[in-house]
Amino acid sequence: MNDSMAICVLSHFRTNVEDTETRELLEYALHLSKQHIQTVTGIFNAEKFPIPYGFTNQDVDLTAPRLYSDTFYLNYLENMAKFGSNAYTVALANAARADIRKFYTECGESSAELFNKAATLLLAKGLFIRAPYMPYPNQSDYVQKQSFLT
């Protein structure tokens, strides 16, 4: 379901992205989602399991006007990769079949690769949102009072 939605969203983003590096990353993410759909469809067909209704071309208007900036597209890809990495890790930890574990492992690896590409591009463009910085302490210390958190 997520990949069929991603295909719709990324296809619309692709129709109006201006930055060539962001376009390449959108293409890569779109390729991954299509590949996932193909693999899952093959597994379901082999098991004679009905294919769920996902999102289709009828659910997106590729001629609709642009809503977001290229910066948003890039941040969307980074967050999509973070979500994918988390979801595939949980799925892998709950899978018994070897072929399904292999699929989730590959999905996790490709999500990590997508994240790394997005993070690298965000850093290069000065757009990566860093975690708050905390200075290193000079020495280790013991808690002296019970109210150390306040």
User: Assembly type of the shown chains?
Assistant: single chain
Order of secondary-structure elements: HHHH
Poorly predicted residue ranges: none
Number of strands: 0
Distance between the termini: 45 Å
Looking at the structure, what is the overall shape? extended
What is the radius of gyration? 20 Å
Question: Would you tell me the overall average pLDDT?
Answer: 95
Query: Structural class, from helix and strand content?
Result: mainly alpha
Taken as a percent bin, the fraction of beta residues is: under 5%
Largest sheet: none
- How helix-rich are the residues, as a percent range? 55-70%
Q: State the helix count.
A: 4
Q: How does this model look, in words?
A:
- With 150 residues, the protein is mainly alpha-helical.
- 62% of the residues lie in helices and 0% in strands.
- It has helices spanning 2-16, 20-46, 70-93, 98-124.
- α1 (2-16) packs antiparallel against α2, α2 runs parallel beside α3 and α2 runs antiparallel to α4.
- The relative contact order is 0.13.
- The mean pLDDT is 95.
